[in-house]
Amino acid sequence: MKPVKVGICGLGTVGGGTYNVLKRNAEEIARRAGRKIIVEEIGARHTNPDCDTKGIQLTDDVFAVAKNPEIDVVVELIGGYDVAKELVLTAIEHGKHVVTANKALIAVHGNEIFEAAQKKNVMVAFEASVAGGIPIIKAIREGLSANKINWLAGIINGTGNFIMTEMRDKGREFSDVLAEAQALGYAEADPTFDVEGIDAAHKLTILASIAFGIPLQFDKAFTEGISKITRDDVQYAEELGYRIKHLGVSRRTDKGVELRVHPTLIPESALIANVNGVMNAILVDGDAVGQTMYYGPGAGSEPTASAVVADIVDVVRTLTADRDNRVPHLAFQPSELSDMPILPMDQTETAYYLRMNAQEKPGVLAMITSILGGEGINIEAIIQKATSEDQVPVIILTQSVLEQKMNDAIAKIEALDEINGSVTRIRVENFGR
C-alpha cells in the first residue's frame, strides 16, 4: 500500500522528538497503521542537533510544506497563535489532514479550524495539546463515550505543580522556587502563561468541550494564578489536612458549565493530591464508570511526541473514511453541540479557605463569624495563631457556598478596622468525599 507522507513544521523540542520517534519506531508504527509513514519534508527555521535529517527535504518556509502536493498530513509544531493558525488553515485548504500539539491554537481558534476541516473532509488531531503524553483526549472522547461526564479536574501545568510541590516539601517561598524552575527550563523567562494559569486554561477549555459537547470558549474561562500563595498558606493547609494544587476544574450543573483554573485545597488523602513535581494528572467523573484518573508526564520531547505520533497513526487508519464516519473533533457530532452556557465565576459553588490578619483584641473573631453567618456561610474549622505581635493570623475553612456570597462576605470583612490588609481566599474541592 502507498506510504503516507508527513510534513513536519517546527523542529524544536516536540518537533525533534516527533521526527525521532517516527524514524526510530518506523516498523512498529507501520504495523499499527497498516502502511508506512514517512517524513517527506520538514519546515523549520533552525535545524535540531538531536535529529539526523540526512536525506529529508528541508525548507525554512512552513507554508511550502502546507502546499506540497506530495504531503498527506501536516504536523504543526511551531506553537503560538497567528502564524500557526494561518499555517493550519492553509494546510486544510490544500486538502491536508493536520496534527497539532498547540493548545493555545485549539482553545482560541479551534471552532473556526474544525469548521474548515469539516468542509474540506479532513481531520485535525490534537491529543498532544493537553497533558503531553497522557492520552486524555482519546480517553474522554472515545473510552468514556458511554458516560455522561459529571466533572473533571486536573493538574495540567507541570511548572505550577513543581512550584507547589517544592513549597510544600521544602518550605520555600514562591519566588525562590520560580527562579529554580526557570533555571531548570520548566518555566519560561516570562512565566506568566504557567504561573497565572493561562496555559492550564487553554487545556481546560479543550477538555471541557470534549467532556460536555460544547463549543470551545476560552474567553469565558476564569483564571487565577499561584503567585500570591505563601508558604504559610501551604503550612496551614497541611494542618487542616489538605494540600494546595493549581487545578483546572470543569463541572456540569443545572445552570451551566463551570470553567475555572485556580489554586485549590485538596484532601491530602486524595490520589491527585499526591501527584508531585512536573507530573500531570486528570480526574474524570462519569455517571457509569465513576471516578478515573490519568497520570503521566505533561511535557517533554518524546512524551509529547508519543501523543503526536499516535494522532498521525489515527489519521492514517481513517484516511479513507468520510467525515461522518470519523470520531468527531469535539467528541459529539458538530450539529449536536450544546448551547449550555459557561457559568460566571460568581455563580459557582465551592468551599473556601480564608486567611486574614486580625488585631489581637476581644470580639474580633465574633465579628468575622457574624459576617459569614449573615451571608449563610457555614464554618468547618478555625485556626487562630498566637503571636507576639498585635495582630494574629486567622484561618477559616468554610463549607460550600455560592461565590457571590463569599465575595460579599470578604468585602465586609476587609472593611473592618480590625482587619489588616486583604483576605486571602483559596477554593476547596473534596471530589465527592
UniProtKB/TrEMBL annotation:
What is catalyzed by this enzyme?
A: L-homoserine + NAD(+) = L-aspartate 4-semialdehyde + NADH + H(+)
According to the entry, every stretch annotated as the ACT domain falls at 353-431
Q: In which pathway does it act?
A: Amino-acid biosynthesis; L-threonine biosynthesis; L-threonine from L-aspartate: step 3/5; Amino-acid biosynthesis; L-methionine biosynthesis via de novo pathway; L-homoserine from L-aspartate: step 3/3
Q: What is its EC number?
A: 1.1.1.3
- What PROSITE patterns would the database entry show? ACT (PS51671), HOMOSER_DHGENASE (PS01042)
The signal peptide stretch is none
According to its UniProt record, this protein's enzyme class is oxidoreductase
Q: Which Pfam families match?
A: ACT (PF01842), Homoserine_dh (PF00742), NAD_binding_3 (PF03447)
InterPro entries per the UniProt record, alphabetical: ACT-like_dom_sf (IPR045865), ACT_dom (IPR002912), Asp/hSer_DH_NAD-bd (IPR005106), HDH (IPR016204), HDH_cat (IPR001342), HDH_CS (IPR019811), NAD(P)-bd_dom_sf (IPR036291)
Keyword NADP among record annotations: yes
GO terms of molecular function: homoserine dehydrogenase activity
**Record keywords:** Amino-acid biosynthesis, Methionine biosynthesis, NADP, Oxidoreductase, Threonine biosynthesis
* UniProt family annotation: Belongs to the homoserine dehydrogenase family.
Provide the protein name. Answer: Homoserine dehydrogenase
Per the UniProt record, the source organism is Neptuniibacter pectenicola
